[in-house]
Amino acid sequence: MVKGLQKGKDCLATLNALKMMGIHMEEEEDRLVVYGQGLSGLREPPNIL
Q1: What 3-state DSSP class applies to 44?
Q2: In whole angstroms, how far apart are CA 27 and each of 5, 23, 41?
Q3: Rounded to two decimals, what is the model's pTM?
Q4: What is the Cα–Cα distance from 16 to 25, expressed in whole angstroms?
Q5: 22: containing domain
Q6: In total, how many domains does the chain have?
Q7: Nearest to 36 by CA among 22, 17, 47
Q8: Which DSSP letter does residue 6 get?
Q9: What is residue 27's predicted lDDT score, i.e. its pLDDT?
């Protein structure tokens, strides 16, 4: 869980890259809940990051 997440372009780009690699996230009011995928859970993104 991340509280106080900044909404700058660099942070948003990082979140987008993680989503493209299969990481599931949910925004809830003032926090972001990130669901891990384990040590081998990242997948190759469909596009160049």
Answers
A1: coil
A2: 10, 13, 21
A3: 0.80
A4: 10
A5: 1-49
A6: 1
A7: 22
A8: -
A9: 93
